[in-house]
Design goal:
about 60% helix, alpha+beta, single chain, 2 domains, about 100 residues, 2 helices, 3-stranded antiparallel beta sheet
């Protein structure tokens, strides 16, 4: 873990990597000892949760209803579009056939 001060900031900043994820931010502290404690807490949280701000994971069951309704709507649109296209093609072909016959 790296603790440093930016050129135009009065606060100490932290920079570390956990499992390939980089974390950077301000400690909000101007004293090195307190900044070290804050940065250590952030590192511990990242190690424990994998994130500094843990979020509740979305359960697949919560998404399945939305996905299935979207899929039904998409299939309905494709069916309508396909059947409309087929009927238009049939009409066009019958009109074209009528025009060609003398």
């Amino acid at each position: 873990m790296k603790l440093f001060k930016k050129a135009k900031s009065k606060f100490y900043w932290f920079d570390f990597t956990v499992r390939g994820q980089r974390y950077r931010g301000s400690t909000g502290e101007i004293k090195a000892a307190r900044a070290t404690k804050v940065a250590s807490m952030k590192l511990a949280r990242a190690l424990e949760y994998g994130e500094l701000f843990p979020v509740k994971p979305t359960v697949l069951a919560e998404l399945s209803d939305r996905f299935l309704s979207w899929l039904d709507e998409a299939n309905a649109r494709v069916f309508i579009s396909t059947s409309t296209t087929k009927s238009v093609n049939r009409e066009f072909n019958s009109m074209r056939t009528q025009v060609r016959e003398p």
